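hiii so my PI (J.) wants the whole complex modelled not just the main chain, which honestly fair. so below is everything: two entries, each one labled with what it is. i double checked the lines twice but i was tired so who knows lol
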Amino acid sequence: NAGVTQTPKFQVLKTGQSMTLQCAQDMNHEYMSWYRQDPGMGLRLIHYSVGAGITDQGEVPNGYNVSRSTTEDFPLRLLSAAPSQTSVYFCASTGVNTEAFFGQGTRLTVV
Amino acid sequence: RKEVEQDPGPFNVPEGATVAFNCTYSNSASQSFFWYRQDCRKEPKLLMSVYSSGNEDGRFTAQLNRASQYISLLIRDSKLSDSATYLCVVNPNAGGTSYGKLTFGQGTILTVHP
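here's the output for the full assembly
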């Protein structure tokens, strides 16, 4: 009963490095999303997808890319990490009539 | 104005107390509303959905006032295990389906002490 699997749990990057945060769900949900959580700011939507091959920007998309080649996977790519991207990242999966289920989060520090 | 606003607290209450959290939202087209619970350094998890008629789940009662664009959560007989951050969450899509897009308040921190 995995639900939403998100990796890695922790990551430290140097400014300018790139990396991919992985997210996979096994619930056959149509909708997947990436959020970042900063102190005092709540969760903010980065990108989301309504199905394989379809993605769109959320509230804070700059500096991030996504793709959705399969229903199950929705990776988030940081092309050139900046200290402002230090945050906790959550992937979420939502069905048509379900709540949002979240992965365990990735704590990213950019130095 | 933020789309979803909560009093961040923190709320410090003794065991057995009743505590209420409030939340306001700015998008009048929003169709569905939720309270999520987030434990320290963990992912958010659904506590309860909020229905127009109000709904209750054990010690927890949620209320929605569409006219005032206001949501509340009442916790009765607080337990130590209720200590967490409570997130007010709004589906801003007028059509009903969220498509995975949710708007979060910044969360209200609750600490229940012996």
